[in-house]
């Protein structure tokens, strides 16, 4: 049976790298897997991503930002996630509904109930079976993310990296609050070598798959 796993965390925590490694590991275990990301994951949502992450678009209001994320998610869920799950392919997604609560809710200060309602409208009943929260020091993560942008100046995706440290601290605190509220969110230490973090993820996913088989 197909399953849906998401990876979450602050900027620069290593989600994208770990999502790719997890996808490869699951394929090696015999699973059919699609690896995707938010915002984006399909052509229309990728266009919205370009608007959301372009640092030149600093005038975007918090509400506009929220609605754009919801629009991108709606398309992504309909075009990528649901079809994959329906054909028996598991999905690994770099960011999803919890990111909106952490960033637009806890960090931007928008109403959490409004965000949950928009998430439900955009994603319907498509909720992750497991969410891996890669907990990482937000100061170090932000430095890593900014360095990544400097190394790749042709990729205009640094709008959130321009936010101050207090914003990113609120993001991390928001994620930890969400993890305390939802059993599907498992927090793990994202510090250390890439391979070590991958092994922590493999341990969590193995436990999840074993529990799923027993259910």
Strand content: 5-15%
For this structure, the CATH topology is: Rossmann fold
Overall tally of domains: 1
CATH class: Alpha Beta
Cα(first) to Cα(last) distance is: 12 Å
Shape: globular
Biggest sheet architecture: 5 strands, parallel
Instruction: Report low-confidence residues grouped into runs of 5 or more.
Output: none
Counting DSSP H or I runs of 4 or more residues, the number of helices is: 8
Mean pLDDT: 96
Could you walk me through the main structural features you see in this protein, from its secondary elements to its overall organization?
- By secondary structure, this protein is an alpha/beta fold.
- The chain has one domain: Rossmann fold, CATH 3.40.50.
- Strands 2-3-1-4-5 form a five-stranded parallel beta sheet, with helices on both faces.
- α1 packs across α8, α4 runs antiparallel to α5 and α4 crosses α7.
- The longest helix has 25 residues.
Nutshell version of this structure?
With 215 residues, the protein is α/β, with parallel strands linked by helices.
Which key terms come to mind for this protein?
215 residues, alpha/beta, Rossmann fold, 5-stranded parallel sheet, globular
What is the strand and helix layout of this fold?
Layout: E1 4-8, H1 15-28, E2 33-37, H2 43-53, H3 62-86, E3 90-94, H4 97-107, H5 112-123, E4 130-135, H6 138-151, H7 165-181, E5 185-189, H8 194-214
Parallel strand pairs: 1-3, 1-4, 2-3, 4-5
């Amino acid at each position: 049976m197909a399953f849906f796993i998401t990876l979450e965390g602050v900027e620069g925590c290593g989600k994208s790298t770990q999502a790719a490694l997890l996808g490869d590991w699951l394929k090696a275990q015999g699973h059919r897997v699609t690896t995707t990301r938010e915002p984006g994951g399909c052509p229309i949502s990728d266009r919205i991503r370009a608007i959301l992450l372009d640092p030149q678009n600093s005038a975007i209001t918090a509400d506009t930002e929220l609605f754009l994320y919801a629009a991108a998610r709606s398309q992504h869920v309909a075009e990528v996630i649901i079809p994959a799950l329906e054909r028996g392919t598991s999905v690994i997604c770099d960011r999803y509904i919890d990111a909106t609560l952490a960033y637009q809710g806890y960090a931007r200060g928008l109403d959490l109930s409004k965000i949950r309602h928009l998430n439900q409208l955009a994603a319907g009943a498509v909720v992750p079976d497991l969410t891996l929260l890669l907990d990482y020091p937000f100061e170090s993560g932000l430095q890593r993310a900014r360095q990544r942008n400097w190394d790749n100046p042709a990729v205009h995706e640094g709008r959130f990296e321009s936010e101050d440290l207090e914003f990113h601290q609120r993001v991390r605190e928001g994620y930890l609050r969400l993890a305390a509220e939802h059993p599907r969110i498992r927090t793990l230490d994202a510090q250390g070598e890439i391979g070590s973090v991958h092994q922590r993820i493999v341990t969590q996913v193995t436990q999840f798959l074993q529990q799923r088989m027993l259910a």
